[in-house]
Amino acid sequence: MTKALVTGCAGFIGSHLTQRLLNDGVTVIGIDGFVDNYDVAAKLRNLAEIGNRPAFTFHSTMLQAQRWKDWLDGVDVVYHLAALPGVRNSWGKAFTDYVSHNILATQFLLEACAQLPKPPVVVVSSSSSVYGTMQGTFTNENAPLRPVSPYGMTKEAMEQICLVYVKAFGLPVTMLRYFTVYGPRQRPDMAFHLFFRKMLKGEAVSVFGDGQQSRDFTYVTDAVEANLLAAKHAAPGDIFNVGGDREIKLIDVLGIMGGLLNITPQIVYQTGPVGDSQRTCADITLAQTRLGYHPQVSLEDGLRQQLADIRSQGKGS
Q1: Any idea where the NAD-dependent epimerase/dehydratase domain is (predicted)?
Q2: Minimal CA–CA distance to 216: which of 141, 295, 153?
Q3: What is the pLDDT of residues 198-244, one digit of tens each?
Q4: Torsional class of 191: left (φ above 0), alpha (ψ -120 to 50), beta (otherwise)
Q5: What would you report as the CA-atom Rg of the chain, rounded to the nearest whole angstrom?
Q6: Which CATH architecture has domain 3-182+218-244+280-295?
Q7: How far apart are CA 244 and CA 222, in angstroms?
Q8: Domain boundaries, the chain
């Protein structure tokens, strides 16, 4: 691989992936429309972290602009991370935006790739939200898709449109279902970022529900590695879970965070919002055997690095 296109390159995972590719000697075309679902200043900081590099060309525009001739020229791999994230904001009138950014923009990309004489490999970022609340043991990729939010539904529809293009055109598309990615540059509206900021200020942390909900947390550099492995080893139509080192209850995560700060977190419990899954837990056996994916960063180490990043930004006291 010599040239890659990264959509959503100024975002959380996208900026880390872009940096990794550049460090590996890959020429990168980056696109980001700076959707204002959270503070755009955070995305600008991410771009600053990438820096001005000769091998990096950045386009500040939406995928809906469809400037594919410029964006896809000579590209070997497309990493499609651009999307409108967030479960809780996907209800009501906002759903139209989720359809536009998560489904329609993906279809535009796939259609453009399918028209090329030699289509690039396309690695698409999906979400564990397609599963909804998981039952029983760890969930593998054959589990029923039962999203419990409009956001999760758009991610499921995005996967389906990808499979349609695989079947119709043989387009080399693979999908990665991330399980709650965290780490430096995490979106400021996400739980770990909010929790650390509150704790650093000596304020109480708001927890939706009883804190017994469990998650499988994935450190951002592990998510990046999964993208690179998928580009090399996945077959058209493959779907992989991308998870962390273990499932853990939210209340126990808060205990780890408090330990890093040498405090006992103050917790205020609130009614859980509609659309939140009670449990997500990844069976990553398929990614391990087919891609060679193995999470390298423990939750404790990952939280320590995220805390250091937040402190370096002066976001806490």
Answers
A1: 4-243
A2: 295
A3: 999 999 999 988 888 888 999 999 999 999 999 999 999 999 999 99
A4: alpha
A5: 19
A6: 3-Layer(aba) Sandwich (3.40)
A7: 8
A8: 3-182+218-244+280-295
| Catalytic annotation present for 79 | no
Average pLDDT over residues 89-102: 93
Q: Which residue has the tokens 């696109």?
A: 31
Identify the three-state secondary structure at position 57. strand
Looking at beta carbons, which pairs linking 248-252 to residues 24 or more positions away fall under 8 Å? Answer: 248/214, 248/215, 248/216, 248/217, 248/299, 249/211, 249/212, 249/213, 249/214, 250/191, 250/207, 250/211, 250/212, 250/213, 250/214, 250/215, 251/207, 251/211, 251/212
First to last CA, the chain: 44
> Which structure tokens are listed for 287?
């990614």
- Running DSSP on this structure, what letter comes out for residue 211? S
CA dist., res. 171 & res. 122, Å (int): 8
Q: Which of 38, 98, 131, 151 is catalytic?
A: 151
The count of C-alpha atoms lying within 13 angstroms of the C-alpha of 200, restricted to the half-sphere facing its C-beta, is 18
pTM: 0.94
Yes or no: say if 125 and 81 are a contact pair by the CB < 8 Å rule. Answer: yes
- Would you say residue 71 has pLDDT above 50? yes
pLDDT tens for residues 136-168? Answer: 677 899 999 999 999 999 999 999 999 999 999
